[in-house]
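Late entry, evening session. Most of the bench is empty. Finally got around to the prediction I had been postponing all week. Sequence below, unchanged from the version circulated by S.P.
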Amino acid sequence: MAEPVIYIIDDDKANNYLTRIMLEDTGLANFKQFRLVDEAIDELKKVVEENREEDYPTLILLDLNMPLKTGWDFLDEFRTLPQPFAIKPKIYFLTSSDYRGDREKASAYPEILDFLDKPITDEVANWLKEKYFSPSFE
C-alpha cells in the first residue's frame, strides 16, 4: 500500500518549510507542496484524469489567505472536481488570523474540519499523524 499523500497549499515559503519539517519529524514524508491554488487544482485534475488514486491526498493543509486565489477559491474549485476515489481528503485551514468571520464562513464548507494555527507545532503534527495515519485509520 502506498504511503498517504499530504498536500500543503501555502504561498509562504517559510511556513511551507516549517510545516514540512514538523510533519517529517513525525515520520510522515509523502508531501506535495504548492504555492498557488491553481497548481494544486491542476495536480488534482491530473491525478483524477490519470486514475492515480495512490497520489490523491489524504490530508490537505490549506492556507486561507493567499494572493491571486484564496483558500476559499480552492474549496469552490475543489467542489467542482470529480471525486472518483474512496479517499475523501481531510482539509484543514492553516491561518495566522483569528478573524471570526472566517470561522462563520467555514460553516458553509463541510469539507473544512477545523482551523490550525500557523506554523503548526510538533504537537499538532503528532495529532494529525495519530488521527489520520495510524493503522486504525480507515
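Two things to note before I forget:
The helical segments are 13-25, 37-49, 71-78, 100-106, 122-133.
Residues 5-85+92-122 form a domain with the Rossmann fold fold (CATH 3.40.50.2300).
Will write this up properly tomorrow.
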